[in-house]
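Hi R.,

Here's the chain you asked about this morning:
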Amino acid sequence: MHEFSLMADLLRKIEELARRQQAQRVVCVRVRLGALSHISPAHFREHFVHGAAGTCAEGARLEVETSDDPDDPHAQDILLRSIDVA
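And the predicted structure, written out as tokens:
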């Protein structure tokens, strides 16, 4: 369930950014998974597709960057890098 709350928070941020840009939909989402975030890109993608259903991010392309540096200050984080909107 931890992934569910993380995804819900991420999608709230995405929707807020899209609203600020007066966008109808999000076409691309870029995230960075820290080395200690404990989620694989494939697992993250599954949660994203499920969580984005019915939101402005539904159907958005997802680009996932991963870090393998456990000493990175954001090693435990999932960072929203950017979104593209239409």
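DSSP finds two helices and three strands in the chain.

Let me know if you need anything else.
M.
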